[in-house]
Amino acid sequence: MLVAALSAGAVSEAGAARSAPRAHAASSYLTGIGDEHATMFSNPLYTQLDAKIVRYIAPYDAAVHPYSLALARVFIRSAEAQHEKVLVAFYHSEYTPTRLPSVAAYQSDVKRFVKLFPRVKEYESWDEANRGNEPGQFSSPSAVGAAQYYQALLRVCKGCTVVGLDVLDQAVVAPTLTYISEFKREIYRLETVMPSIWGLHNYSDVNRLEGWRTSDIVRALGGQVWLTETGGIVKFGGAFPNRNGSGLARAARVLRFMFASASDHPQIKRLYVYDWNGGTSATRFDAGLMNAHEQPREGYVVVCRQMHAAKCAVKTAKN
Predict the structure, then answer these.
(1) What is the Cα–Cα distance from 99 to 106, expressed in whole angstroms?
(2) Distances (CA, A) of 131 to 127, 171, 215
(3) CATH of the domain at 96
(4) Contact of 60 with 47, CB cutoff 8 Å
(5) Judging by DSSP bridges, how do beta strands 166-168 and 268-274 pair with one another?
(6) Is 3 inside a domain boundary?
(7) Is residue 8 one of the residues assigned to a domain?
(8) Residue 312 covered by a domain
(9) pLDDT in tens, 259-268
(10) Which DSSP state fits 192?
């Protein structure tokens, strides 16, 4: 998703050189892709990755809105046809994005979604819960609200793996650590099950070729961690430009660092690269492994090799 926290600045070339990843043994985590477009499942460059896991972001009220439900159904059925395990992350409504649902409304809507997709057994209660509010665009829950949504999802998805808090690292990490602490405090107050698996988006860290934010958050979360969104940014505002294709090389470098950095943390058991479909020159946030025409970029080759696909030597796009 959009990562407003990244706008504080990009990594310098000097910093990149100092932070080059070390060589690692075979990774101890499972790698998959996060995206919201089912077209990737028909792309031979995707199918050759033989991914076992994939992540999809659905509005919490998708089950009660035919358009949102149709998109989710096509994506999930396409993933299941390729025997991929789908992690669904709920998010704000596409119709009322600035209005957070009551716990009762949230529970009712996600219950309907869970019933519609009986083979989906992995969920997140709210994507990037600590992202904050963008007036006129979307709202995010407080830590207390996020804990209540998590409890509601547990109630309606018996036998499911429900990932705990899903957080964005942010350039300044202190607010994220505070949010985690407040979430855990509410979990204790609710006397519900403390999560054993947590979600983290560490864009700010890896796109500066740094690892300290990830370390701090992994330590604060405790338990198993899934990097539910991470990746190399091709273009994001003025901080991460793509002038003459420079963003493509930078994103590929970040992806190499990202994989090596994840191997530094035995708590990290999954990594979802976001995302497959890239944008155009007018796109504000672009981290696609493909360009807008589904042609492979340099970053695709990095991911392809990480996933040990057979044919990673492809002609890469210049945009």
Answers:
(1) 12
(2) 9, 12, 19
(3) 3.20.20.80
(4) no
(5) unpaired
(6) no
(7) no
(8) no
(9) 999 999 999 9
(10) -
Please give the radius of gyration of the chain, using alpha carbons only, rounded to the nearest integer. 19
d(CA 167, CA 84) in angstroms, rounded, equals: 24
Residue 82's Cβ-count burial label (10 Å; 0-12, 13-18, 19+) is middle
d(CA 217, CA 215): 6
8 A C-beta contact, residue 29 and residue 262:
yes
Q: Count of domains in the chain? A: 1
The structure tokens 């809105």 sit at 65
Please check whether residue 214 lies inside any domain of the structure: yes
* CA–CA separation, 298 and 249 (whole Å): 7
Place of tokens 């969920």: 123
Cis-peptide into 264, omega within 30 deg: no
Domain of 188? 28-306
Q: Which residues contact 77 (CB under 8 A, 6 or more apart)?
A: none
Q: What is the pLDDT along the chain (319 residues), one digit of tens a residue?
A: 444 455 444 444 334 433 444 444 456 899 999 999 999 999 999 999 999 999 999 999 999 999 999 999 999 999 999 999 999 999 999 999 999 999 999 999 999 999 999 999 999 999 999 999 999 999 999 999 999 999 999 999 999 999 999 999 999 999 999 999 999 999 999 999 999 999 999 999 999 999 999 999 999 999 999 999 999 999 998 788 888 889 999 999 999 999 999 999 999 999 999 999 998 878 889 999 999 999 999 999 999 999 999 899 999 998 8
Q: Are strands 235-236 and 285-286 parallel, antiparallel or unpaired?
A: antiparallel
User: CA angle, 71 as apex, 247 and 289 as ends, to 5°?
Assistant: 20
Residue type, 22: R
Nearest to 168 by CA among 177, 159, 160: 177
What six digits make up the tokens of 263? 């191997």
